[in-house]
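Researcher: We plan to redesign the surface later, but first we want a full-length starting point. C-alpha cells attached.
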C-alpha cells in the first residue's frame, strides 16, 4: 500500500497516518519529522533548514526529493508507505511520479483531508498554545504562514491528482474515528 495524505497543517494527517501504520503495517514517512530530526541532531541538513522551518516556509524541492528518494529504498518501506507532508509542490509531485516510475512502483491513492479553513485556524491556534515548546514552528504566526504556503503551493495538488483520477476526499472535520473509518473504506476499495 502506497499512499499520500494531503491536507493543510492541522488537518490531522499525522493522527490518521499513525492509525494506518498500525492497520496496514506500512511506514509513515513524514518529511516534517525527518527535517525536525535533522535540526535536533544539528546535522548539515538540519543547520541548513532550521530557519526555513521556523519561518514556516518550504525547504527546497531538491533537498526534500532526495530525502524521500533515499528513504523509500530502505527495507522498512518494502510493505509500503504513507507520505505525510510530501509532496507539497507540483515539482515535488512530478519528481515523485518519476521516482516511483523508475522503480516500477505505483501509488494506490491520494487521500485528501478536506477541512474548513476558519475552523482550521482555530485548531492550529489552539495547537500553537499547547505545543509552543514542542515545535518551534507551532506559533500562531508561523502556522498562518504555513497555511498561506499550503494554499499557494500545495493546494494545486488537489487538482493535479484529481486530473489523474487518483484523488479521494475525506471530510477531515469529522470525529477522528470517523475520518479513520472513511479512509479505511476508501483503501479497501482501491
Ligand atoms: P510538517 O510537519 O509536515 O508541517 O512540516 C514542517 C515544516 O517542514 C514545513 O513547514 C516546511 O518548512 C518543512 N517541510 C516539510 N515537508 C516539506 C516538503 N515536502 N517540502 C518543503 N518543505 C517541507
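Model: Full-length starting sequence:
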Amino acid at each position: 500500500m502506497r499512499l499520500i495524505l494531503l491536507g493543510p497543517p492541522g488537518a490531522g494527517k499525522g493522527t490518521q497516518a499513525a492509525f494506518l501504520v498500525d492497520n496496514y503495517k506500512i511506514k509513515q514517512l513524514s518529511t516534517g519529522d525527518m527535517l525536525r530530526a535533522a535540526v535536533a541532531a544539528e546535522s548539515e541538513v538540519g543547520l541548513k533548514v532550521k530557519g526555513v522551518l521556523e519561518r514556516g516556509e518550504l525547504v527546497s524541492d531538491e533537498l526534500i526529493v532526495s530525502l524521500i528518494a533515499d528513504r523509500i529504498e530502505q527495507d522498512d518501506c518494502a510493505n509500503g508507505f504513507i507520505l505525510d507532508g510530501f509532496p507539497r509542490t507540483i515539482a515535488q509531485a512530478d519528481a515523485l511520479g518519476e521516482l516511483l516510475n523508475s522503480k516500477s512502483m505505483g501509488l494506490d491513492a491520494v487521500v485528501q483531508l478536506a477541512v474548513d479553513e476558519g475552523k482550521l485556524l482555530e485548531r492550529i491556534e489552539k495547537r500553537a498554545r499547547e505545543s509552543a515548546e514542542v515545535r518551534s514552528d507551532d506559533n500562531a504566526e508561523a502556522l498562518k504562514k504555513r497555511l498561506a504556503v499550503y494554499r499557494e503551493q500545495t493546494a494545486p495538488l488537489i487538482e493535479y491528482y484529481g486530473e489523474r483520477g487518483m484523488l479521494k476526499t475525506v471530510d477531515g472535520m469529522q470525529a477522528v474515528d470517523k475520518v479513520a473509518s472513511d479512509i479505511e473504506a476508501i483503501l479497501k476499495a482501491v
